[in-house]
Structure formats: structure tokens, C-alpha cells
Amino acid sequence: MSAPSVYAAINAIAAELAEHGIAKNHVNAVDDYRYRSIDDLLDRLAPLLAKHRLCVLPQALERTETERQDDNQHLLFHVSVKIAFTLTSVDDGTSHVVEAYGEALDASDKATAKAMSAAYKSAMVQTFCIPVAATEDADQTSHRLSPRIHSPEPLQGWPQWCLDIEDIVGLCESEAAISIVQERNRDLLKALAREQPQLYAELGQAFLTRREVLGSRAPARKAAKRSRPCEKNAAGAPEVEHA
């Protein structure tokens, strides 16, 4: 009885990679170690996947994001992902799922992409037993992290504090008033973003909703002002509005 095609393809690719492996041709200058990049892995693996008619289909299962700081107090985004890679044979449709985790740090918007690359590298190296063990890092540079400092909660706790701020925002009658609320609570809002990202997102939606309500009222007020009849003073002349 022959094995399902998906396992035959995995075995064939592993056999070809076992002969020469993938060398570590790059050097991390910060931590002084050698590594192989995601491009090195893709350059070797892509032709073999096509040759042996094997598809690798990723699906994101989990993602978390936290804010960190390096030694110079620069803001960094730490992203952790859990990815399921489905290896499917084109020949008979048989498949096998490999799950892997990936983590990455970045100062802008590349942390998720780097984390996914790290997960892919880890999954493929282990699945195909590629000689020369995979590195833990997803890119060439490393960041020196300072210990994370947890911000103390307000006395009433984060959930109640958010409800209190929502009530205040709901009473604001202008954009300026909303901006004042944000400015006066800036430090606590930053702490909320670090400690309770879900509550921070919900509170941000409350700010946005109130701004939209105020924005929709503005045209109606202007129209009412234009349609209001002129009032006359005792002398019979139209009243002049003063700013």
C-alpha cells in the first residue's frame, strides 16, 4: 500500500534538502551569530515545492501585539502569531497541517510580516528536517529591550475608568471639548493601550462615535441659522449679529 502523496512529497523534498542543506551566509552584527534569511529558505524551497507538486497554504490562527521600548526608549511593536500551514499534494489532494509560532519586533508596520516569516521558517525547517538548525530571529537586527513597566490602574479599575470617560465624552458638545478630555487623560490613555488593548479600542470607538455625532449636527445648525428670519430693532432696521 503506497503512502498518501502528501507524505511522499514531503519525504522527497527532505531528501533533496538533506544533501546540501541551507547554509548560514549572513551575520547578525549586534549579537554576533550567523543565520540564514527567509529569502535563502524560499530560494531553495520554492523550486522543490513546484517540482514535487506540494502546496503550502498558511492560515493565521492567533495574533497578539504589545508595545515595548529599546535601550534608547524608542517605541517598538512586538507581535506574536500562531500560523497553521496546510501542506497539500496536487496529485491526490491529501494534506497535512503543521502549526508554528513566530515573533518579531519592529518600529513601524513590519512586525506582523516578520513574525509570519519566522513562523514559516520554523515550520519548514522542522517539517523537511533541513540541515543547519533554524535561528530564533526573524531578521538581521536585534533590539535591546528594557524591562516592561506595568502602569498602575486607576483607583476604580480600568473597566470603570473607561465607562467614566465614555460618559464624559458623551456630554462633550464640541471637538475642542473632546480634545481637552484626551489631553487631560493622555498618560492614562497610553497606559490603557499597553495594559488593556481591547478596552483601549472600545474607548477609541466611543471618541470616534461622539465626533461623528457632532459632525452630523454642524450642517443642521448652519442651515437653521441661514433660514432664521431677520429681527428688527425698535427703529425698524434689521438686527446685526455680533461675533
Low-confidence stretches: 133-138, 231-243
**How can the largest sheet be summarized?**
3 strands, antiparallel
Termini gap: 91 Å
Number of helices: 7
Shape: elongated
Proportion in helices = 40-55%
Structural commentary:
- The chain is α+β, with helices and mostly antiparallel strands and 243 residues long.
- It folds into two domains: 5-127, Enolase-like, domain 1 (2-Layer Sandwich), CATH 3.30.390; 158-227, no CATH class.
- The chain is 46% helix and 20% strand.
- It is built from seven helices and five strands; from the N terminus they run H-E-E-H-E-E-E-H-H-H-H-H.
- It has helices at 5-20, 38-51, 111-127, 158-171, 175-184, 186-195, 197-227, and strands spanning 26-28, 33-35, 54-69, 75-89, 95-106.
- The strands form two sheets. It has a three-stranded antiparallel beta sheet with strand order 3-4-5. It has a two-stranded antiparallel ribbon with strand order 1-2.
- It starts with a helix and ends in a 16-residue tail after the last helix.
- 18% of the residues are buried.
Question: Which features does this protein show?
Answer:
243 residues; Enolase-like, domain 1; alpha+beta; two-stranded antiparallel ribbon; elongated; three-stranded antiparallel beta sheet; 7 helices; 2 domains
Topology of this protein?
Layout lengths: L4 H16 L5 E3 L4 E3 L2 H14 L2 E16 L5 E15 L5 E12 L4 H17 L30 H14 L3 H10 L1 H10 L1 H31 L16
Short description:
This protein has helices spanning 5-20, 38-51, 111-127, 158-171, 175-184, 186-195, 197-227; strands at 26-28, 33-35, 54-69, 75-89, 95-106.
